[in-house]
Write a structure and sequence with these properties.
It is a single chain. It is globular and about 95 Å long. The longest helix has 17 residues. It contains eleven helices and 34 strands. The strands form four sheets. It has a 13-stranded antiparallel beta sheet. A twelve-stranded antiparallel β-barrel has the order 1-2-3-4-5-6-7-9-10-11-12-13. β5 and β6 form a beta hairpin. It folds into three domains: about 250 residues, monomeric porin ompg (Porin, Beta Barrel); about 140 residues, GMP Synthetase, Chain A, domain 3 (2-Layer Sandwich); about 250 residues, no CATH class. The protein starts with a helix and ends in a 7-residue tail after the last helix.
Length: about 700
């Protein structure tokens, strides 16, 4: 208590003191904090951290994301030895910084620890932190697990007697939001200090309010003292190592790796230098009636096509009048569509006759055009080299719907058919199976795409597994509802080549603000059939509405047809089939700061009805970090362990890591458990994700790269 009182006095009573901000470090739970205890500090906005901590018979793996400047979220996967077994526990944390630190007051934060899970680490807290030179002092009050040492009656009991008691354990199958337990029961105080004694070394001491009741009962250690000590060593700005002594009886270690989607590890991408704008005063003067001379028009297309191809841009169409040029292009290289549009505009300024004074670029994505970006040619000549050139260009640029634009002008020049393919290594992971928490497979993947005409795409993926660490006998699902997803482990274990998908897609524009798509074939690894989608999305709106319906049948485990096999505890059993109709109404909205929301309402693969909510934080370089949750009319008990479907989604652009422009991305989906309730068809290239890249909100967010 002496340590707590001293720190509390320092945190709350020190005023008019301002120092350089010490480095934010992570605690054993993977959040900014002390050793075990939290603090009110936040990591830099958008920082992504992965930490591993080992203490006694407990191992914690935590993925932490600074969702917004004030909001921190974390997902934790822990291995905890009990008296009879090893418990593999999944938990989520949230922390919100209520007050920023000033010269007069500390930062103040409120947090929920393990608020969706089994409740092993469940607790809530309010913490205050204040910088005192190279020292950060923290004090706070905790409930639940964080109110278990030297506790006292809950001060919130003065508001209502409901706060006096807290239910033990957790409800049913776990994974539920136990809001009725928050800030209930006994409370306890915690405190601590961290001293950044050099650029690399930080010393920490804390008075912990966690009695580690479960670990002591399981014989992990003897609880001798609430005082914990630690030393952090910063190997480099992105790597932290920590050694700590806990409870007077245990030694622990922690390693944290951090990154920030805003900043590439190699710095800015090394983009090829764009062609400079050629003012018309120096350009070749067009003869009168130049459009009536076929050889001149053909020569223009012949000159444009190979230069754009070298820049990773394909010319799809070119419409010309004496004063207007409309180029329809498909950008295969740059994450930013404005950057590709800027490259095309400069090239056109070099080649177009001087009579053309308006240039329009129509960016097409996988056969579907979303917008037409129109700007005066003289603006290109005037603003290329000015300090505010990008903003000046945006001010004179008009973006309209491209539904009525003629994209066929160059089709006769050999644009179609197209064929492309790629071959290379492929790694897949299956996480959180209690029998094999990290199942990895390394193989080779062949992907091919044939485009016989505009909007028609035939794509396929063939994969061969080479080596894996799968268990010889897969874990059989105990789901009591139809096994629409929970038998996925059987799909991963085919010994021969697996045709993961083979789909024919037709994408088209039914009208202004409307987009359509039909798909047929092996739509994904587990299902094949027919699918149709319609999207309403105005080009200048942050809002969109969509509808999707699919008639599907479950595929066989070996991927060779539509004769799925049932599974018994003994392995593969008698043939059976499963088919269903699934579909959703969807609403989309793009908030500020790169936050995107999506709501789906409809019928899922197990014929359950419900709603899904997805929130993503997206960055102009292509990074995406988000989370989703789905609730349906399947009860929590029938759903099984986890209670409802939820997960974390990340998309990592290849260009961010290699430092060269590329539109390729790697998708990572982290699900605490893969169950059958709330399961959605895993279609690629849904219309909203294709279209919005060319619409006004996304173009404006990335317009600063127009001259890059």
């Amino acid at each position: 208590m002496k340590l707590f009182c001293a720190v509390l006095s320092g945190v709350l009573c020190i005023g008019h003191i301002s120092f350089a901000e010490p480095r934010v470090t992570y605690n054993s739970f993977g959040l900014p904090g002390l050793i075990d205890m939290p603090s009110a500090q936040s990591a830099p906005d958008a920082e992504l951290s992965f930490s591993i901590s080992q203490s006694g018979k407990s191992l914690r793996n935590t993925l932490t994301f600074q969702i917004a400047p004030r909001l921190t979220g974390a997902f934790r996967y822990s291995s905890i030895e009990t008296t009879s077994q090893t418990l593999f526990d999944r938990s989520f944390d949230l922390r919100y910084r209520l007050l920023d630190e000033t010269d007069r007051r500390p930062a103040l934060a409120v947090g929920l620890q393990d608020f969706i899970g089994t409740g092993v680490y469940s607790g809530e807290y309010v913490a205050a932190s204040k910088r005192l030179g190279p020292v950060v002092a923290t004090a706070g009050i905790g409930w639940g697990r964080l109110g278990s040492h030297n506790s006292f009656d809950n001060p919130l009991g003065a508001i209502s007697s409901r706060f006096d008691t807290r239910d033990a354990g957790y409800t049913g199958t776990g994974g539920r939001i136990e809001a009725a337990r928050w800030f209930r029961g006994p409370a306890a105080l915690f405190a601590g200090v961290s001293w950044q004694m050099s650029d690399r070394v930080t010393l920490k001491a804390e008075y912990s309010s966690d009695a580690y009741t479960q670990e002591v009962a399981a014989g992990h250690f003897v609880y001798r003292s609430p005082v914990n000590l630690a030393v952090d060593y910063q190997i480099k700005p992105t790597v932290q190592l920590t050694a700590y002594a806990q409870h007077g009886d245990e030694i622990g270690i922690l390693a944290s790796l951090t990154s920030n989607p805003k900043h590439s590890p190699g710095g800015a991408t090394r983009d090829p230098a764009p062609m400079p704008v050629l003012p018309r005063a120096k350009a070749q003067v067009a003869p009168a009636g130049w459009l009536e001379i076929p050889s001149l028009r053909s020569a223009l297309i012949t000159a444009l096509t190979p230069v754009l191809q070298q820049d990773g841009i394909q010319l799809i169409g070119l419409s010309l009048t004496d004063t207007i040029a409309i180029a329809t292009i498909e950008n295969h290289r740059y994450q930013s569509q404005p950057q590709a549009i800027g490259h095309v505009a400069r090239l056109l300024s070099n080649l177009l006759p001087t009579s053309v004074d308006t240039i329009a670029v129509v960016p097409m994505v996988k056969g579907i055009a979303g917008s037409q970006v129109i700007f005066p040619r003289n603006a290109l000549e005037a603003h290329e080299a000015t300090a505010t050139g990008a903003a000046d260009m945006r001010a004179v640029t008009v973006v309209t719907d491209a539904a009525a634009t003629d994209h066929k002008a160059a089709a006769a020049e050999g644009v179609y058919p197209q064929f492309s393919w790629s071959f290379g290594p492929d790694t897949t992971a299956s996480l959180f199976d209690p029998d094999n928490p990290v199942a990895l497979s390394f193989g080779a993947k062949l992907t091919a795409e044939w485009v016989p005409a505009r909007g028609v795409y035939v794509t396929g993926t063939l994969r061969q597994n080479i080596v894996d660490n799968y268990k010889s006998t897969p874990r059989y699902s105990n789901s009591i509802i139809t096994h629409v997803r929970s038998d996925s482990t059987f799909y991963d274990r085919a010994s021969g080549p697996v045709l993961r998908d083979l789909t024919a897609n037709y994408r088209f524009r039914p009208g202004t603000n409307l987009y359509g798509q039909f798909s047929v074939g092996y739509l994904e690894r587990m299902y094949g059939g027919l699918s149709a989608e319609l999207l309403w999305k105005p080009v200048d709106s942050k809002f969109g509405l969509g509808f999707e319906v699919s008639a599907v049948r479950q595929r066989s485990f070996d991927g060779l047809g539509f004769a799925p096999l049932t599974v018994t505890t003994a392995g593969l059993g008698a043939p059976r089939s499963y088919d269903t109709i699934t579909g959703h109404f969807s609403g989309y909205y793009a908030f500020d700061n790169g936050l995107h929301a999506q709501v789906n309402v409809g019928r899922y693969l197990a014929k359950d009805w419900g709603v899904s909510l997805r929130l993503n934080r997206e960055f102009n370089n292509g990074w995406k970090v988000g989370a989703y949750a789905t609730l349906t009319n399947i009860s929590f008990d029938d759903f099984g362990e986890g209670s409802f479907d939820k997960g974390i989604v990340m998309k990592i652009p290849t260009s961010w890591g290699i430092g060269r422009p590329s539109r390729a991305k790697r998708s990572v989906v982290i699900r605490p458990l893969l169950r059958d309730g709330g399961a959605k068809l895993d279609l690629s290239d849904r219309l909203y994700d294709l279209v919005r890249d060319t619409h006004v909100p996304q173009l404006e967010a990335q317009w600063g790269r127009f001259w890059r």
